[in-house]
């Protein structure tokens, strides 16, 4: 499976196109370095637009959950977060792996069963792991302490929720891993490792499989055919690769090498998959994260969980690139107010104070409307000994958020190094009127 070449044009056409591509050369410290560090900002060329009222359905690995939350926070209706799963669902809550689909086959299984319910294997996919205890390796490792009839009813409600994929205006697919597990008896790829007790009881039933390029591409094409077959709306679809690496590998090699294969083979397959498909785009969230400075890219002091600030920045990029009417900032690669705020937080982690000040200056209108941005700008300017600029930012923050005592108090404290004693007295009177209960702060300002 696969085309002979991803692309084929004449040499003359290639040189003409290269000449007109302003982003052709890889960034260097002295040229376009800000496009790569501290936060990579790959550019996209959308082939479709997302209308303001369009609904979204996200499916795939754990990064898809980040995408859902960010889009929901941005005011989009996310159908993949609208579900009623009864007592079983309530018992699971946000159980690890429950809504995540780690391989293309796991995604395709659920979509096929949801849209063509007669293909659902029923009780065969519910594995008994003890008396009155079951699990479903299609959903994750969560234990299901209910009777089989209740679990099956829940399973159909889950598929009802998955069926919303045919009604959503926009589908976001995030591929995870290529290390998979296969049930030979059912002829079915699983989503997670089957229970150890079942492997011991039936050692020949399950296989560990590493997907190839053609496996991934074939799964993508199968999923696409299912969606086209059952949807009445035009398909608008963003596909990407999760930046979250393997926690561990079952292959006989360094996990770093195994992870590189896992991500790169899926990334390569997506380039061929999108060829000639109207309304299907690749979005580089994987590149956003993995090419960025690790200090800002990862959260929880590890190299696996993507920083919420980076997720916000990525989704801000999605919104302004694809959504009509999304307000863009002036700096290349920077997007909405949320994106500006996220970028400043990341720069603050690196103590890049001058870059913070410059970024706010380049996006003055957005900065002046956001109190959090102004507070960060004030801090950065203060660290640079740019006292007047820090004072000005705090003044704006106090104006748009008069209920915040911290902006006014920082203005008062700045009056001392700026030798503005009379201004400090005036601000203290204002502080006493606005925040009578904070006399402890005023008592400390003895230099006035």
UniProtKB/TrEMBL annotation:
Q: Name the Gene3D superfamilies for this protein.
A: Tetratricopeptide repeat domain
Which InterPro entries does its entry note?
GSCFA, TPR-like_helical_dom_sf
Q: Where is the GSCFA domain?
A: 56-316
Superkingdom as given in the UniProt entry = Bacteria
Q: What is this protein called?
A: GSCFA family
Q: Which organism is it from?
A: Wenxinia marina DSM 24838
């Amino acid at each position: 499976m696969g085309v002979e070449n991803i692309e084929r044009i004449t040499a003359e056409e290639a040189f003409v196109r290269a000449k007109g591509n302003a982003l052709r050369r890889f960034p260097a410290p002295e040229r376009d370095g800000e496009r790569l560090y501290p936060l990579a900002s790959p550019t996209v060329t959308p082939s479709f637009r997302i209308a303001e009222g369009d609904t979204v359905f996200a499916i795939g690995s754990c990064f898809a959950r980040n995408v859902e939350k960010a889009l929901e926070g941005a005011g989009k209706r996310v159908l993949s977060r609208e579900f009623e799963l009864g007592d079983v669902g309530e018992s699971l809550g946000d159980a690890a792996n429950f809504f995540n689909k780690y391989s293309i086959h796991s995604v395709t299984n659920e979509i096929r069963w949801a849209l063509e319910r007669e293909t659902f294997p029923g009780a065969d996919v519910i594995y008994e792991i003890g008396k009155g205890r079951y699990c479903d390796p299609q959903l994750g490792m969560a234990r299901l302490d209910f009777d089989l009839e209740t679990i099956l009813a829940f399973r159909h409600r889950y598929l009802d929720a998955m069926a919303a994929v045919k009604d959503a205006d926009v589908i976001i697919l995030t591929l995870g891993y290529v290390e998979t597990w296969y049930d030979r008896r059912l002829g079915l790829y699983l989503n997670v490792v089957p229970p150890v007790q079942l492997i011991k009881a039936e050692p020949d039933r399950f296989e560990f499989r590493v997907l190839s390029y053609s496996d991934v591409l074939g799964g993508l094409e199968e999923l696409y055919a299912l969606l086209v077959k059952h949807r009445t709306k035009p398909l608008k679809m963003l596909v990407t690769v999760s930046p979250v690496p393997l926690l561990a590998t079952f292959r006989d090699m360094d996990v770093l090498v195994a992870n590189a294969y896992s991500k790169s083979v899926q990334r390569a397959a997506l380039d061929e998959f999108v060829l000639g498909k109207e309304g299907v785009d690749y979005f580089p969230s994987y590149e956003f994260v993995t090419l960025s400075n690790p200090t800002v890219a990862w959260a929880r002091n590890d190299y696996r969980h993507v920083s919420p600030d980076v997720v916000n920045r990525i989704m801000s990029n999605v919104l302004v690139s694809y959504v009509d009417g999304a307000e863009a900032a002036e700096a290349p690669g920077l997007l909405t107010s949320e994106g500006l705020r996220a970028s400043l937080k990341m720069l603050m982690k690196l103590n890049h104070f001058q870059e913070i000040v410059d970024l706010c200056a380049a996006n003055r209108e957005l900065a002046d409307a956001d109190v959090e941005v102004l507070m960060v700008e004030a801090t950065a300017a203060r660290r640079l000994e740019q006292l007047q600029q820090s004072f000005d930012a705090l003044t704006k923050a106090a104006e748009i958020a008069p209920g915040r005592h911290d902006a006014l108090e920082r203005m008062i404290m700045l009056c001392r190094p700026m030798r503005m004693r009379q201004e400090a007295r005036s601000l203290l009177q204002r502080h006493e009127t606005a925040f009578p209960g904070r006399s402890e702060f005023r008592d400390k300002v003895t230099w006035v």
